[in-house]
Write a structure and sequence with these properties.
globular; mainly alpha; 3 domains; 70% helix; 24 helices
Length: 497
């Protein structure tokens, strides 16, 4: 809730005090916790909310010793979270959230540690421990020094379990995004003051290493363009260097975070990434035997295409890029609606993400395509009664995402949106111990309500007290309370992109 409120800037003044207390509350819970079973949940909460206040002096300027301490604390929390955040490939909703959660944390950590580094250097200069020219060089290169320090921390942790390796990959990608943004903000005249190459690898080369590392992990047959970070592999029985299912899945889903970097610096590699992921879709010759990997490769493709739509690449790119996006979506949709495929849930989620963001792009015939696909997804859900509960939950969630986006851009009318809402409400009422249905319904009701759908407002006012009552009812079944929590969180906007 805290994370989505910050991201969407939707904090009402009367909610500000409550929300601002969340990071401190989570930190105290994390520090005091003695129950191993609570650790992964608290770590995930810290990933989304961890932040520390900046203490200022009477002159209104930040106090250096506190800034330095803040940077050290962020670094310690970074190490802790790499080890404590849990990754379960069967948790589809977590797979959607984790890349962006790590990207948000790494941006906060990166800037806090840079500020801490500057503060330490100023204190050293003040106490006469360093020469002025030396301090100026170190201040100028602080952003690169922090990059390499955090990269070394990832290297140290990457020798551990598959879960830690997965977190390392997500953290490294989040760091790459933060660095690319930071470099963009640096002015050219400052860049020319010092020659940093003897001490630091140029950013373009470092980013290329991150991209090639991810692609090499996703596909063991990939030939990197240059050097890679070789820490994530393990020897297979045949003696080959391979990566675990968790590492491959995390590498694939984290690629979408780098879309802004691809667009600015590596546009020629977008097609390469899309083709690599398409070749690993369920039913394709390169598809892996692992269920988890098939699901995450198709989810990764959907995340990558949707991010390209979000960055409005179709507005600025040439006709070839538009054709490439539509070809990639077509491949994903073919798998999504192919009921003979065993592991196509990632395709369904991926299609939902693309259609949700496609409604705001200028892709050819997108309105008719979205409208038709929404109806096909609804029919798919109607016919899925004898399918797995996970498939039904994913379909419901996908329909909710697409319907909100389509209604917000007037691709579907209020009556059709209401029909979808009724469908999900009935499903949720009949399956009160299914978290995915409550998550989908809450998300749909919130999204439609924000866009001015009157019936959604009415339903929201009914669902909120009902779910809250279930959450607080200690005698209620655990799964029913868990479903109610999912519903409540999505009802206040946790799923808003």
């Amino acid at each position: 809730i805290y994370h989505s409120a910050l991201r969407g800037n939707t904090v009402r003044s009367d909610h500000g005090k409550t929300l601002s207390s969340v990071p401190n509350f989570m930190m105290k819970m994390h520090e005091r916790n003695k129950q191993p079973g609570l650790k992964p949940g608290l770590a995930a909460g810290m990933l989304l909310s961890y932040d520390l206040p900046i203490h200022v002096g009477k002159d209104g300027k930040p106090i250096n010793r506190f800034l330095a301490s803040r940077g050290r604390n962020f670094h310690q929390m970074f190490i802790a979270l790499i080890h404590e955040v849990n990754i379960q490939l069967s948790e589809w909703h977590h797979s959607l959230l984790l890349p962006h959660s790590w990207a948000g944390f790494m941006e906060r950590a990166y800037h806090a540690i840079i500020q801490g580094r500057h503060a330490e250097l100023e204190m050293q200069l003040k106490h006469g421990k360093e020469e002025l020219e030396q301090v100026q060089y170190k201040q100028f290169t602080a952003w690169l020094w922090v990059r390499d320090m955090l990269t070394d921390a990832v290297k140290g942790a990457s020798k551990e379990s598959p879960v830690v390796k997965g977190n390392c990959l997500l953290a490294l990608t989040g760091l790459a995004v933060a660095i690319a943004k930071h470099e963009k903000e640096l002015t050219l005249d400052i860049e020319e003051q010092f020659d940093t190459e003897p001490d630091f690898l140029p950013t373009k080369h470092w980013l290329s290493m991150v991209i090639d590392t991810l692609l090499s992990i996703v596909d063991s047959h990939y030939c990197p363009k240059g050097r890679i970070f070789p820490w994530f592999y393990q020897k297979s029985y045949s003696g080959e260097n391979t990566a675990s299912a968790i590492a491959r899945s995390c590498a694939a889903t984290s690629l979408s975070l780098l879309v802004p970097v691809f667009i600015v610096s590596y546009k020629e590699r977008v097609e390469e990434v899309l083709n690599l992921l398409i070749a690993m879709l369920p039913g394709k010759p390169n598809a892996d035997e692992s269920q988890a990997i098939q699901i995450h490769m198709s989810l990764a493709l959907g995340m990558f295409i949707s991010r390209l739509c979000e960055e409005k690449v179709s507005d600025v790119a040439d006709k070839q890029m538009n054709l490439l996006l539509m070809k990639s979506l077509e491949a994903l949709e073919d798998c999504c609606f192919d009921t003979s495929l065993e592991y196509n849930t990632g395709c369904i989620l991926g299609v939902g993400l693309v259609l949700s963001l496609m409604s705001h792009s200028n892709l050819t015939d997108s309105e008719a395509h979205i409208s038709t696909s929404l109806r096909k997804l609804c029919k798919y859900l109607d016919d899925a009664e004898d399918q797995s509960r996970t498939l039904q939950e994913i379909l419901a969630y996908t329909i909710a995402c697409v319907c909100v986006s389509a209604f917000s851009t007037r691709i579907v009318e209020a009556t059709e949106a209401e029909e979808v809402m009724d469908k999900l409400q009935k499903l949720t009422e009949m399956n009160q111990q299914t978290p995915g249905f409550a998550l989908a319904l809450g998300s749909l009701v919130h999204g439609l309500s924000v866009c001015g759908h009157g019936k959604a407002d009415v339903l929201s006012n009914k669902l909120f007290p009902a779910w809250m009552k279930t959450v607080l009812a200690e005698g209620a079944p655990t799964m029913q309370r868990l479903a109610a929590i999912n519903g409540l969180v999505s009802l206040v906007g946790s799923e808003t992109t």
